[in-house]
């Protein structure tokens, strides 16, 4: 009887020590998540707070909170993107509103825009108003850390493109024209377009 117990115990031990590959190969087992490596100067809490502070990209129509306005003079809007991406987004907003680009210089961050100052209704009003009623505005696009700031101002008199009306005499002196500064309207128009209308690729 004792011999039978020893034989059964030996067989049981042999069965437990079989070469079953599922216990040796653990490559397919789920691994625990790895903690991000931190530099010697940062604690895990600092790294986590920096990740939370990173801007969240909104997918869909409009940049939403990735664009905002700041009060002051001059009025400006800020895009939470680098210069290159902001320049492209601003270009899309300009074309979306069918604004005429009189001149541009990407290296200096300048856009010269012809605008009649009628905000949302500017597109419709442009069909009824002639070019004489439009003014040229200077858009400055400037990088600021991880963001880009855009300001608008009425271009100086020499930069204004003033066409002559029918019957006006040709003269070396530019015609007398009173320019109304509607740069705030232009910033508002671009902000609304960037915030709500543009497709965020």
Structure characterization notes:
With 201 residues, the protein is α+β, with helices and mostly antiparallel strands. The chain has a domain at 64-162 and 178-197: TATA-Binding Protein (2-Layer Sandwich). Helices cover 31% and strands 21% of the residues. It has helices at residues 2-16, 21-24, 44-53, 83-96, 122-125, 183-197; strands at 60-61, 67-70, 76-79, 100-105, 110-115, 135-144, 147-154, 199-200. The strands form 2 sheets. Strands 2-3-7-6-5-4 form a 6-stranded antiparallel sheet, covered by helices on one side. A two-stranded antiparallel ribbon has the order 1-8. Strand 6 (135-144) and strand 7 form a beta hairpin. The longest helix has 15 residues, at 2-16. The radius of gyration is 33 Å and the shape is rod-shaped. It starts with a helix and ends with a strand. Mean pLDDT is 76; it is low at 51-55.
Structural features:
two-stranded antiparallel ribbon; alpha+beta; 8 strands; 21% strand
Give the structure's gist in a few sentences.
This protein has 201 residues and is of the alpha+beta class. It has six helices and eight strands; from the N terminus they run αααβββαββαββαβ.
Count of separate DSSP helical elements: 6
At CATH level 3, the topology of the domain at 64-162 and 178-197 is: TATA-Binding Protein
* Order of SSEs: HHHEEEHEEHEEHE
Biggest sheet record: 6 strands, antiparallel
Helix content: 25-40%
Structure summary, number of beta strands: 8
* Mean pLDDT across all amino acids: 76
By CATH, the superfamily of the domain at 64-162 and 178-197 comes out as Outer membrane protein assembly factor BamC
CATH architecture type of the domain at 64-162 and 178-197: 2-Layer Sandwich
What's the CATH class of the domain at 64-162 and 178-197, please? Alpha Beta
Biased composition (Polar residues): 37-46
InterPro entries: BamC_C, NlpB/DapX
Biased composition (Basic and acidic residues): 23-34, 156-168
Region (Disordered): 23-52, 149-178
């Amino acid at each position: 009887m004792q011999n039978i117990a020893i034989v059964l115990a030996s067989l049981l031990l042999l069965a437990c020590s079989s070469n079953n590959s599922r216990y040796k190969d653990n490559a397919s087992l789920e691994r625990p998540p790895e903690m991000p490596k931190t530099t010697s100067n940062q604690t895990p809490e600092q790294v986590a707070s920096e990740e939370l502070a990173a801007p969240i990209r909104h997918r869909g129509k409009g940049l939403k909170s990735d664009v905002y306005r700041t009060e002051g003079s001059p009025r400006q809007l800020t895009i939470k993107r680098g210069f290159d991406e902001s320049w492209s987004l601003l270009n899309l907003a300009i074309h979306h509103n069918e604004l005429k680009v009189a001149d541009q210089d990407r290296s200096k961050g300048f856009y010269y825009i012809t605008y009649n100052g009628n905000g949302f209704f500017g597109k419709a009003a442009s069909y009824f108003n002639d070019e004489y009623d439009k003014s040229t505005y200077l858009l400055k696009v400037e990088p600021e850390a991880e963001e880009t700031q855009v300001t608008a101002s009425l271009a100086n008199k020499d930069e204004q493109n003033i066409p002559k009306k029918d019957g006006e005499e040709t003269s070396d002196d530019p015609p007398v024209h009173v320019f109304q500064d509607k740069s705030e309207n232009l910033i508002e128009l671009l902000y609304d377009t960037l915030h709500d209308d543009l497709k965020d690729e």
